[in-house]
Amino acid sequence: MHHIVAQIAQEIRVQVHQVQAAVDLLDGGATVPFIARYRKEATGGLDDVQLRELEYRLGYLRELTERREAILRSINEQGKLTPELQAAIDAAATKQELEDLYLPYKPRRRTKGMIAREAGIEPLADALWADPTLDPATAAAAHVRPEKGEDGSDFTTTAAVLDGVRDILSERWAEDAALVQNLREWLWQEGLFTSKLVAGKDENQPDVAKFRDYFDYSEPIGKVPSHRALAVFRGRQLELLDAKLVLPGAVEPGVPSLAEGRIALHLGWRHQGRAADDLLRKCVAWTWRVKLSLSSERDLFTRLRENAEAVAIKVFADNLRDLLLAAPAGPKVVMGLDPGIRTGVKVAVVDATGKLVDTATVYPHEPRRDWDGSLHVLGQLCQKHGVQLIAIGNGTASRETDKLAADLIKRHPGIQKVVVSEAGASVYSASEFASQEMPDVDVSLRGAASIARRLQDPLAELVKIDPKSIGVGQYQHDVNQSELARTLDAVVEDCVNGVGVDLNTASVPLLSRVSGLSGAVAKAVVRWRDAHGAFRNRQQLMDVAGLGAKTFEQSAGFLRIRGGDNPLDMTGVHPESYPVVQAIVTRAGQPVEQIMGRPEALRSLKPEQFVQDGVGLLTVRDILVELEKPGRDPRPDFQVARFNEGVEDIKDLREGMVLEGTVSNVAQFGAFVDLGVHQDGLVHVSQLSHKFVNDAREVVKTGDIVKVKVVEVDVARQRIGLTMKLDAPTGRREGGPRDNRFEPSRAGRGGGRQEAGAPSAMASAFARLQGQQKR
Predict the structure, then answer these.
(1) Which tens digit of pLDDT belongs to each residue from 124-182?
(2) 416-420 and 389-393: which strand pairing?
(3) Domain 2-105 is in which class?
(4) CATH of 650-742, one of 2.40.50.140, 1.10.10.60, 2.60.40.10, 2.60.40.2310
(5) Residue 724: helix, strand or coil by DSSP?
(6) Any idea which fold 337-456 has?
């Protein structure tokens, strides 16, 4: 275990004792949010990002250790474990390296090499390899059998015996871990990842045309960006693209490939015209073409996919975090509009607490076109309930419904309208939880209520939906689903606990994301609340069935009680630290109510004065910050994007238009912006700033409101190119040496030279987010 701790410490660049403390806490049942927030002394202040990486690596390295022990047992039982082999297995740093070393000893079906060894041909193979001056035919004659073996093996001719030599040597070499790893790394550095349209496919078919950028594509495999790799793998899965790993340097038929040369070099052999050299060259060629070429391609494609998936999952996680931590409108009366054409616009009004108080359906669009009647119904709802905000779903008829809301606001000044993402709203509407929340409400109207609540508190509403249905992922259906779910669940957990949860208003889905609270305990908390009324203090949590001391320790600090018995219960101060607060209050000489929220009352106090057993300096500082800003919300202030009048469809866009929109998704290669025209526009990474940008998230994040200029409109392919470089650059002329550097051609050798078949930066980026789950 110590070597695992030491390795993790080295990887995340912290001290061994910090990692050991975190591991002990995790093994003891503590959650990452709890450790990051309330056990800073123990871990030396490790944050949630470091702890998540630590938790992941801990699991991986423990699995690696278990596999290592199983492999050592297996080889030892075979009587083939040497000190050198054990040392190599002990030093293996990855599961791939372990499996490479285990390959020669792995139980498997009988191979041609095994059959040849059983026939006694291995001494001949060893002799020819050791002394290539021996004549193969003459040496093989002694091993020719008069008849076939009982198992069907046929070594009745000299040629068959020499084929056996080839099978023995090629299998031996193909199981040489050092050779395989050397070859694999060389191919990763030098091999080309290529794709072509499968013969017979119609490139003009819409489903096929999506992959046009990859009909004749080639790029060094080690430099393929995530989105291009996943696009090719999807096309391959759909049997539209034929993907291959191509060796560097074209060769003519009959000429040894560079890979064969690498194998020969590793073996220390070269053709010198000796009697057995032609046979040995055949064995080397067989090793590559039959034994290693396909397996190497498979291994490197797996590596490329895993790398691409890791990037895609990170993109999804970062976007989800931004969406969950978007600015809440707060406790305001909101009218949610779920746009529709023939089915009408679904309307739901929720009060300041999020409770559904009224619903309606209006038909302002085709075919009824009851515009005035719709305004009348909406106006009555606004007056009846005191509506302050209108939330408009961004789906079909969103812009037309936005115009309806604008007309409504003219009649009822003071109301603001906001277009919000409705991704996943239908998933929520049909869920079991939605039916429990709104049992007597039509499914379509539940969607409108969810849209309204998203404006009030995006975090509280979106936790009710599977994160994969929220629609901010890149190729989300193409990545490892268990790893995606693990990562997204961690993001949701960190966001919920980072903000804190109101114990007396939180739903079961929100409570179940709180540190230490399982789904069953969350339900028990709500049942207790329904039976006994609002919690008056955190200590009452101990009265909830199934909620013991350990769960209380893990969860209490993240649960807020407003207007309760103890003002500290609305802060992030953990109950275990209340005695420290009492010492602070005593020193300040004022009641806790009078010092909370008053920095001037706390400024003269020195944190060092309150350090005591179990409560260190880091915790004291956190307590003082909480007292200065009790119950603070880390999310940004709420603001509204305003769409341009007269721009409702992609056909309304013109080059040069300057528009305002909301960033709907961010990938490494650029940001997608909702302009209210039913098709997101792309700001390529080269168009985000006058300065060089490597990753779009350096400049924008999901939910940001941005101004953009239209630079390209392709109505046929539903593509909108945008730029955020609206004014002249400062310091360096636009188009300077560091501008527009995110080009696929740069991924190839040769700097600015365009690789054959590599898509342009903008075109490639538009082959984007095909896995994005819209509503």
Answers:
(1) 999 999 999 999 999 999 999 988 887 778 899 999 999 999 999 999 999 999 999 99
(2) parallel
(3) mainly alpha
(4) 2.40.50.140
(5) coil
(6) Nucleotidyltransferase; domain 5 (3.30.420)
